[in-house]
Amino acid sequence: MRTLAGKKILLGISGGIAAYKCAELTRRLIERGAQVQVVMTKAAKEFITPLTMQAVSGRPVSDSLLDPAAEASMGHIELAKWADLVLLAPATADLIARMSAGMGNDLLSTLVLATDAPVAVSPAMNQQMYLNVATQENIATLSRRNMMIWGPAAGEQACGDVGPGRMLEPMQLVEKCEQFFGPKLLAGKSVVITAGPTREAIDPVRYISNHSSGKMGFALAQAAQQLGADVTLISGPVTLPTPNGVKRINVVSAEEMHQAALANATCHDIFIGCAAVADYRPLDIATQKIKKTADKDDMQITMVKNPDIIASVASLLESRPFTVGFAAETQDVEAYALDKLQRKNLDMICANDVSIAGQGFNSDSNAITVYWQGGSKSLGNAMKTELSHAIWETISEQIA
Ligand code: C5P
């Protein structure tokens, strides 16, 4: 029962109605052996009193950056260093925006800047505020900076709306903390992931490529790293930062990605082909820039097939990793995905419909169904960061 024995959790509460659940959350964390230091924003104190939080946590609440008495006992830098985990629950749209902008205009946001402890963000707000593109971009920014995003749940809201934005229930947050401090799902596993598009040169200044942003592959790499895996990410040209702790190999063309994949596949347990590899490349790459001609209105480029990277990994006879592909389709998603699973000899395939607006290529969210021999699981529509955790859980169940 004392699953969190000795763990130091800094609970940052910002001003949302879900703050009333923080007393229960604190009780449950302490019951499991955690030490909980509560930090409240000014607005949070409108929803639950510092006296309540002091009583349940057994520690005075910290709420001011400029209080000489508080600074003399445990100053803000000391507090930031004390924590094993910073849990922001509820995290309002305002707190998320301030963190995304890197602001330090109160004690809580300053602590987030000053800590090197992992930070978990549990968003809670009205569904329209949550779905607002600014909030979505801010959450994506925090996620890229390696903060863990826990929730939100969807359902009926305090304001009467129905939709996503409910803070996870206290016991769900406790479970997340237990998972975080417990043995990691991918501990001892090594994974290699391909991500992004490839570029197939036509001449020194032109190429053929596609709209892949690399977001899904990068989210998978980040999640695997957080789940304890040793991660190698083979990336085509994208503008995304490398997730913390991930080894990145940059490639440009499908042939380069093929070489990097084969060089790495056999020394890893799991291979995920998330890259949108160009199926064909120009047969000849002109050594000089191709010029427009006055006498011809058309131009032909002869294309040759690129190697199928994932199929070559899946056909390895020795030290073959568990191989997972992606199928981005615009129609007959299930049929095409199952066909690819068989034809490429994959262990699993994650299929999504990229014809639906706001989903798939270049977007922050996705809807995925995972298929394997004799089974399937719909992972629903969610942020790519959330989905990637669900994909790793599904893979872990299959390799167990
Ligand atoms: O055949 P299709 O491109 O739709 O298959 C998608 C899956 O195959 C993805 O996992 C993708 O990364 C992989 N693939 C590959 N090499 C190719 C083409 C696709 O690894 N040349």
TrEMBL record:
Binds 1 FMN per subunit. The active site is at C159 (proton donor). SUPFAM superfamilies: CoaB-like, Homo-oligomeric flavin-containing Cys decarboxylases, HFCD. CTP binds at G273, C274, A275, D279, K289, P307, D308, I309, I310, F326, K340, K344. It comes from Vibrio thalassae. Its EC number is 4.1.1.36, 6.3.2.5. InterPro entries: CoaB-like_sf (IPR035929), CoaBC (IPR005252), DNA/pantothenate-metab_flavo_C (IPR007085), Flavin_trans-like (IPR036551), Flavoprotein (IPR003382). In the C-terminal section; belongs to the PPC synthetase family. It catalyses: N-[(R)-4-phosphopantothenoyl]-L-cysteine + H(+) = (R)-4'-phosphopantetheine + CO2; (R)-4'-phosphopantothenate + L-cysteine + CTP = N-[(R)-4-phosphopantothenoyl]-L-cysteine + CMP + diphosphate + H(+). It holds the Pfam family DFP. Keywords: Decarboxylase, Flavoprotein, FMN, Ligase, Lyase, Magnesium, Metal-binding, Multifunctional enzyme. One of its GO terms (molecular function) is phosphopantothenoylcysteine decarboxylase activity. Gene3D superfamilies: CoaB-like, Flavin prenyltransferase-like. Residues 186-397 form the DNA/pantothenate metabolism flavoprotein C-terminal domain. This is Coenzyme A biosynthesis bifunctional protein CoaBC. Its cofactor is Mg(2+); FMN. Catalyzes two sequential steps in the biosynthesis of coenzyme A. In the first step cysteine is conjugated to 4'-phosphopantothenate to form 4-phosphopantothenoylcysteine. In the second step the latter compound is decarboxylated to form 4'-phosphopantotheine. It comes from the Bacteria. GO terms for cellular component: phosphopantothenoylcysteine decarboxylase complex. Residues 191-400 are annotated as: Phosphopantothenate--cysteine ligase. Pathway: Cofactor biosynthesis; coenzyme A biosynthesis; CoA from (R)-pantothenate: step 2/5; Cofactor biosynthesis; coenzyme A biosynthesis; CoA from (R)-pantothenate: step 3/5. Residues 7-180 form the Flavoprotein domain. GO terms for biological process: coenzyme A biosynthetic process; pantothenate catabolic process. Residues 1-190 are annotated as: Phosphopantothenoylcysteine decarboxylase.
